[in-house]
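Hi support team,

I submitted a single chain yesterday and got back a structure, but I'm not sure I'm reading the token output correctly. Could someone confirm the output below corresponds to the sequence I sent? I've pasted both exactly as they appear in my results page.

Thanks,
R.
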Amino acid sequence: MAGGEQASILDAMKDQWTSMVGMAGMFIATILIGLSIQPVYDIPEARAFGEAGASKGGFIALELMMIGIFTVAIIWLARKGIDWLIKGIVLFALWMSMFYAVQPYAALLLIILGMESFATVAATSFMVSAGSIYLLHIFPEWYVVNGVGIMVGAGVVTMIGVSFVPVLIILFMIAAAIYDHWAVNGSKHMLELADTMIDLKLPVLLVAPKSSDYSFLDEGDRVMRDDPPENSTMDWDDPVPNVAVGKDKPKGREALFMGLGDVIFPGMLVISSVSFLPETGSELTYVFGTMYTGPLAVGLGTLVGGLMGYLALMTQVARGKPQAGLPLLNGGSILGYLVSGYFALGIDQLWQDITFL
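Hi R., thanks for writing in. Yes, this is the structure output for that exact sequence:
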């Protein structure tokens, strides 16, 4: 990289450091919330395909196929202008994921209050999750989107992380990274999907504003695509595009956007590590259950690796163009898993036997 280009990227990163730090904080918070509730769902009954299905690669192939079908369906509906159906499908899926994340915390609160029962936990979890989704529907400002998005992401990383062994999660992450690179840099349909979600103000992404006066409600539907709209006077050759024009406007993007998938995939490997690696080391018992320091060290090492991937991703985002996040985020997480696993457990403990069916 030439010195001048490197300096310009560093300047752009300094200009956007609040957004980048905020996004990193949400990345960490989502995964740590999922990690905190992992013991509650680390049981055969909570695994998506049962205890035996945790090592079957055919179910990972099914997950990938469902992601592809969902993407095609949402883009088709958006092109047909059927926004109400997109919003209904997505909000229902978000409510289900959020319900799982809220439930353990609702149970803890009710225990403290001396009101715990199956009915009260279920009712409280339903009201909190449904109320949050309704608030999102009527007032999708960035902090509402982020609050719902973090809890939804925590629910998804937990439910998928406890359902598959790390080897399958890693294969899933590699396949998803390849797909993400093609979808962003090749076909570019992922950018269209992201713009659809931004336009509908749906929390399948996280929003990190650069300043406190930013409003997600004012965001248009062409944030991610760098082809200029008609009659635009914006300088699209600027190193950091998509900025407001005028001497009093800040340089760089007004906010950073990260799809929830960019958090969910690294988070799945963190949860899977804690769920399936050998239970070595000391026991750590807290309100939601028990963990062991050996697999927990690998999980946290995976998170650190994901953050290293995030830092590398930000050097590319600072250039001002949409980037495929999963190649760097997943790559960093997998590397963190292998390195921390080598030191905490031994490399031979990181393999799980898998079958296709």
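A quick pointer for reading it: The CA atoms of residues 163 and 333 lie 18 Å apart. Let us know if anything else looks off.

Best,
Support desk
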